[in-house]
User: What shape does this take?
Amino acid sequence: MKTATPSRLLSAPLSIPLALALLTAANGSQAQEAPTFYEDALPVFMKNCVACHQPEGPDVGGISAPMSLMDYDQARIWAPLIKNALATGYMPPWGAHERHRGEFKAERYIDKDEKELLIAWVDGGALEGDPAAAADEQGLLSSIVGAGMPESGWWIGEPDLVVEFERPVHVPDEVEDWQPTIQMHYPEGAHSNPRWISKAELDPGGPWVHHIVSSHMGVGVPGRGPFTYPEGWGVLLPEDPFITVNMHYHKDTGEGTGVYDSTRAGFEFYDDGDVIDYVVETNLLPHRGWTIPAGDPDYRVDNTHEIEEDIYLLSMGPHMHYRGKAMRYELEYPDGERETLLWVPKYDFNWQFLYEYKEPKFIPAGSTMHMSWWFDNSEANRWNPDPTADVEYGPATTDEMANARIYYAPATPRGIVVGRDMPQDVLEKARAAEQLRRERADLLDLTEDDFGWLTEDSP
Assistant: This one.
């Protein structure tokens, strides 16, 4: 007797009871194969998402996750948007191309098979599965949630020093874009000697904070977490009575749109006896003098920066506004060899990451950094404030910028022992940076044409 081939089985006549039985079995098999939340989706969410998407999730540069992906009911409601965010690459937010996987700290890549599993879970009906299966994941759950916001309310843990405004800053109804320079005073007696910063965190008062810039706290922008320097790297905080910060507020106008801002900053310091080999410096590397034509979907500008001494490159922070589309850093070595340091093909103003190397990168003197920015000033860009307008470099959120901030240090170790005599050049440089801001501390209403503060310290 011949065995029927699959095609013959499909074409052979079946009795109605047998056909129904086979159909029921097939549907049951598909149901068993469809991913479920507790058995399949939750472990992937915990690995890739719940550091932010958890109950009372942390604030990251003024942004908080809208739901917890540890909760089935919430995940099910958001399932269609989860699929779209994964399919378009919007989540997990990161920006750096896949080619950089493994280079930077705290990278947010999701594996292809994990992405496909979550999409299959949504397409399969976002099934719940057996809640008891989550018990098998408690070890992973604890480790991931532990990486989220500590009980202190600060990513860096309990700060050694917290500074804030003397009173909340009022941003009135009629204000759309405002950039006041403000003083943050130290608590009395809390900071009487220069100290070395190992971690710094800026805590924006709300989503209307476009950026925060300080000589010693770094830069706070949407989506960016705290600064944690490698061991032996640090920034000196002078003993001055306050820190001067530039705030940039951007919001809608109209009745009831006014807000009060209580932005804070926290610091963790090195202990006496620790050694600082590398004093962190920063350079904005801004590029001006260009005009983006109205409606242009792919406008490119380029700039270069000469490396005059051996340095270690710590991190890179691309910065554009709503028309920003992509950004690239390239390095040309003295022998002519070129290397892509960072390629961000999908820049997102709402997620302005600082890409920090796992190990600082040595760059020899005589190298040239090549920087390129791409902008979309067309109607297709849904974030574009006005596709009919030509756009130039400017301070307002509705203007544009082409900045390529870097954090670095001279390659020669300093061997500074914390708690002993401070090198005068380091102390004087730190004081000068703060004094520059202090001299502008009363300029709360910057004139339309006053772009001087952008020279060294905007993001």
Notes: The first strand starts at residue 161 and ends at 164. The chain has a mean pLDDT of 84. Residues 15-146 form one domain.
